[in-house]
Amino acid sequence: MSELAQPSAGIVVALVLSAVLFTTGLVGFLVRRNMILMFLCTELMLQAAALAFIAFGKMRGDTGGQVFVIFILTVAAAEAALALGLVVLLYRRRETLSAEAWQELHE
Amino acid sequence: MTLPSLMLASVLAAASGDAAGHGSLADAPIVAATAAPELAWVGWVLALPALSAVACVLLAMLRVRNKLPAAATVLALGGAFALILKLYLSRGPNAAPVIVHLWDWMNFGWGGGDWKSFQADVSLYIDSLTLLWMLFVTGLGTLIALFASEYMESERGPGYARFFFGVSIFLLAMACLVMADNLVLLYLGWEGVGLASYLLIGFYYRKPSAVAAAKKAFIMNRVGDLGLAVGIWLIWVNYGTVEYGELFQKLAVGGSDQGGWDRSLIPFCLMLGAFGKSAQLPLFTWLPDAMEGPTPVSALIHAATMVTAGVYLIARMQPLFMLHPDAMTTVAWVGGITALVSATIGMAQYDIKRVFAYSTVSQLGYMFMGLGVGTAFGAAYHVFTHAFFKALLFLTAGAVMHGFAGQLDLRRLSGVRKVPGFGIVSWTMLVGCLWLAAFPYSAGFFSKDLILVQAMSKPQFQILGWLSLATAALTAYYTFRVWFRVCAGPVSYVPGEEAHGDHGHDDHGSQHHDDHGHAFHPHPPRLAMNGVLLLICLGAILAGIPGIQALRGQHNWVQEMVYASTAVRAAGVDHVTTPVAFGMDPHKVVSVFGIAASLGGIAIALWLHLLDRRMADRIRTALLSNGLTRWLPVAMENKWYFDEIYHALFRLPLWVASHLLHFFDRHFIDGVLVNGVGRVPTVLGRLFQPLYNGALQGYATTMAGGVILVLAWVAWRWLGAGGAA
Predict the structure, then answer these.
(1) Separation CA B391–CA B534 (nearest Å)
(2) Are A103 and B695 within 8 A, CB to CB?
(3) B627 touches chain A (CB under 8 A)
(4) Dist. CA A17–CA B714, nearest whole Å
(5) Is the C-alpha dihedral spanning B70, B72, B77, B82 positive or negative?
(6) Which residues in chain A have their CB less than 8 angstroms from residue B697's CB?
């Protein structure tokens, strides 16, 4: 603990927000069955991680965190397009958005 | 440049020379071999067959369908023969041995001194024994390749090139074997001729029996070759060299049998190799089966040249064998008994080529007996004469087979002599038969006589001598059984099943195909085959000249060659002439009984197989119907059950063991070890499979729960550590 710099109040707030976002995403992912909502929840978790990057970067006085977030956003945009496309295709097959419709994939 | 002209020239040269008694030659000190770099051109003897082998491969790749592969091979072999002839004429029959170093092969040392270095180079050891062998190997090789150019013509295309490739590498390996200056290079050639033999026996690779015969020959030879390999290793361990020149010097100085037990094992190891290659008891059963190959191969490899490699090995290693009298005795007895056993089998075979194959085994037995009883001259002379008359017999058998659509059963051929176009074949076959039967004053008679005289003149070998006289009578009988059945008598024949010769897949004899069913026309040999038969026949006749000289007590060419060889000189071979049974000179006894045996055998064959052909069957039936003698024809027709005995002794136990091991492998190694271990993850997987229910949220919960657990554990450890600090 002693090697790390003491976080300022703003950083603590950012980290708490990040934790709240992540928990929201996680809980949402676990309790909802709608695939679009589940996908949005994963996005929430991703952005929570991005926020934590910025916070820790700020704490260490390192711009690397922010640079990384730019990349995360880019990748997230691409991945969102892909995932939404998949969801649309899955919907077309079963006429439902419920994740339970695809339970037999476990084999 | 023909072989007969060479022989005449050399015989005349020998006769005009001032002949010294061979006793003094044998007593002469060993002449050390000297290096002869100016003879480097002799290396072309090896290079020419190698080049023709390459040429055959290229021609096969270019899909050439004419006779070019045969032309390349005949030219190369003829060139090699011409070089050997030039070498012989420039050196004379009894020049000192020379070593021609071609290039370094294995040459390394670890400290210097004896047993601290190893040298085996590609060098040639040229003495009269080498030259004697090379003269008939290359000379007959050329003629047989020429014969094959016509005999194999229905195979034109890749098969034709493959055949002549085999012949070329055979000659390359044989030259390597005979001309090597060390045992390792000899071994290379030894294996090379084995490979060539395998490839050529299995030439008709679509025929299961040919493939089986090729495998049998190869595997049986492996047994013998193991003996040779161990023998060479023991020679190095005991004498610190594998080079002939050095080895003979050491043997001469080393005197008698000092050293460990392994030293006395050496000749027996070498013997095993020789017996394998030369088809002697107990490793002889591959040779008759080797007749599955095309007939020129039988003539070249399995009658005239390769099978004499064993005789060559022992003749070359004579100084070593002379130090071990038991080894010599063993060689003599194995040879004598093989001669008798295979002669009895040969009497009861119906396939012409098989009769000749057993006669080859039998004659090789005589050669080994000659070596064993101490007449390297007799053995080498018999090799020489046998090479001619046996090549002749095989080639005539091949010509008959070629002409009668693969028919080789002597019960189904008769009066071939009177069939148009088969005159030369029949009469040259008669010469071959007379020579093989040791008809008085033929070359075969002289060479056999020399061996028998030597056996008779040594009291311990007299029984063997009488046994061999009996064998000689059997030989005369079975040889003329073939000739009287096939060539004499009224004309009648049943063509074989193959459309043309012994060729499995024929494309050229289609006109014979058509009329095969209604009217079969024999297919007489043409110029190449007849010419070669006449040339070899002439060679066989001329091969008797040294024998006549020997009979007159004159010095002769072969004897001079053999006694001039360092090997034999170092061994101090002597011709003992002690009085023998009946108070007569052994020579006289052997001559009288030998002539009687030969003529008697021929007379019985004449009676049973020409004058009264049904008599042979009546005798057979009589023997079979009598309970006491029933076993005799059955055993002889079944080759004394050698194959069956080997089957029971070796193949069956190996078969049982392999099946037991297969069972063990299948059920323990595979079942318990491999699959058992492999099943562990499967079982574990089954255990956890219910977790994978396909519910996405279920997975996520598990994962999140796991992450939370890990985090909690880390936090607890961290806090605990922090608390402790």
Answers:
(1) 12
(2) yes
(3) no
(4) 22
(5) positive
(6) 29-31, 33, 99
The torsion defined by the Cα of A90, A95, A100 and A102, in degrees rounded to 10, comes to -40
B700 and A31 within 8 Å at the Cβ level: the answer is no
Burial class (CB within 10 angstroms; exposed 0-12, middle 13-18, buried 19+) of B5:
middle
Domain assignments of chain A as residue spans, ordered by start: 10-98
Q: Which residue, B465, B462, B433, B464, is CA-closest to B449?
A: B465
Cβ contacts from A onto B, under 8 A = 27
Task: Give the pair of three-digit tokens for residue A71.
Answer: 């990349």
Contact between B101 and B37 (Cβ < 8 Å): yes
Q: Which of B694, B701, B704 sits opposite A106 (nearest CB)?
A: B694
Mean pLDDT of chain B: 81
List, in sequence order, every residue forming a beta bridge with B584; answer none if it has no partner.
B580
Nearest to B313 by CA among B215, B142, B189: B189
Task: Look at domain A10-98 and name its CATH class.
Answer: mainly alpha
Give the contacts of B151 (CB within 8 A, at least 6 positions apart): B294, B295, B296, B398, B399, B402, B501, B529
Class of residue B607 by CB neighbours under 10 A (exposed 0-12, middle 13-18, buried 19+)? middle
For residue B704, give the nearest of A1, A30, A38 by CB distance. A30
> How do B492-493 and B413-414 pair as beta strands?
antiparallel
Q: What is the DSSP letter of B647?
A: I
Which residue from B7, B41, B12, B14 is spatially nearest to B140, judged by alpha carbons? B7
Tens-digit pLDDT profile for residues B621-648: 888 887 777 778 787 777 778 888 888 8
| List of chain A residues whose C-beta atoms are within 8 Å of the C-beta of residue B722 | 1
pLDDT at B372: 87
Question: At how many degrees (to 10) do helices B309-316 and B128-151 cross?
Answer: 170
Q: Does the beta-carbon distance from A105 to B722 stay under 8 Å?
A: no
SS3 (DSSP) at B520: coil
In eight-state DSSP terms, residue B406 is T
Tell me what ipTM this predicted complex has: 0.77
**A26 — contact with chain B (CB < 8 Å)?**
yes
List all residues of chain A from 53 to 72 with a beta carbon under 8 Å from chain B.
Answer: none
Cis bond upstream, residue B282 (ω within 30): yes
Strand-strand pairing, B117-126 and B413-414: unpaired
Chain B contact for A33, CB < 8 A? yes
> What is the Cβ-side half-sphere exposure of residue B169, based on CA atoms within 13 angstroms?
22
Encode pLDDT of B560-601 as tens digits: 777 666 555 544 444 544 545 555 677 777 788 888 888 888
CA dist., res. B296 & res. B200, Å (int)? 10
Beta bridge partners of B99: B35, B125
Any alpha helices (H) in B404-437, and if so which ranges?
423-436
Q: Which of B694, B700, B704 is opposite residue A104, by nearest beta carbon?
A: B694
Chain A residue numbers with beta carbons less than 8 Å from the beta carbon of B693 are 103, 106
- Report the predicted TM-score, pTM, of the whole model to 2 decimal places: 0.74
Q: Mutate which of A22, A24, A26, A39 to disrupt the B interface (most B C-beta within 10 Å)? A: A26
Distance of CA B656 to the CA centre of its chain: 31
Q: Which of these, B114, B110, B162, B171, lies nearest to B140 by C-alpha position?
A: B171
